[in-house]
């Protein structure tokens, strides 16, 4: 693989990287939501016992602030991922060979496995490898890498 092909591959992999970050942050958001819900149930107890209501209220407010902050981050990442998807899709549409477009879309946006792409396109692994390298070469030229 040439340096320009490798750079084109890295350019395409940004989507998967950003998707992974978004999924990770969504899990963290769910954890923070659970903490807020736990604080809410503790704060809204029946009042029995010797709980410090002000301390519980403070924990709830802190948890809610953490959740809100994480929600803003996740929403920003979702917008960024959609923009990145659109950018990559538009660039791939400029590839001259429809098979190159399909291979790039399947591998880098749909995140399909190589075997699945082979089956879907009815091509051998060696043909897929060659077409993939050709696609990266053409993409590198489009990106002026």
Structure, explained:
Helices cover 83% and strands 0% of the residues. With 145 residues, it is an all-alpha fold. It has one domain. Helix 2 packs antiparallel against helix 3 and helix 3 packs across helix 5 (125-143). The longest helix is centred in the first third of the chain and has 41 residues, at 3-43. The relative contact order is 0.16. The model has no long low-confidence stretch (mean pLDDT 92).
Please tag this protein with its features.
single chain; 145 residues; mainly alpha; 5 helices; 83% helix; 0% strand; elongated
Helices, strands, pairings?
Layout: H1 3-43, H2 53-93, H3 98-109, H4 114-121, H5 125-143
Helix pairs in contact: 1-2, 1-5, 2-3, 3-5
The tally of strands reads: 0
> How many angstroms separate the termini?
14 Å
Could you state the order of secondary-structure elements as H and E? Answer: HHHHH
Mean pLDDT: 92
Helicity, as a percent range: over 70%
Fraction in beta strands: under 5%
- Taken from the alpha-carbon principal axes, the silhouette is elongated
Number of helices: 5
Number of separate structural domains: 1
Radius of gyration from CA coordinates: 23 Å
Low-confidence stretches: none
Helix-strand category: mainly alpha
The main pleated sheet reads as: none
């Amino acid at each position: 693989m040439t340096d320009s092909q490798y750079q084109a591959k890295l350019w395409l992999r940004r989507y998967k990287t950003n998707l992974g970050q978004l999924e990770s942050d969504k899990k963290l958001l769910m954890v923070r939501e659970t903490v807020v819900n736990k604080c809410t149930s503790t704060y809204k107890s029946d009042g029995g016992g010797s709980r410090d209501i002000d301390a519980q209220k403070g924990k709830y407010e802190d948890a809610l602030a953490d959740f809100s902050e994480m929600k803003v981050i996740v929403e920003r990442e979702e917008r960024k991922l959609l923009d990145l998807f659109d950018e990559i899709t538009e660039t791939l549409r400029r590839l001259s060979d429809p098979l190159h477009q399909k291979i790039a879309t399947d591998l880098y946006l749909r995140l399909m496995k190589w075997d699945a792409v082979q089956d879907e396109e009815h091509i051998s692994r060696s043909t897929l490898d060659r077409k993939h390298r050709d696609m990266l070469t053409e993409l590198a030229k489009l990106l002026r890498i």
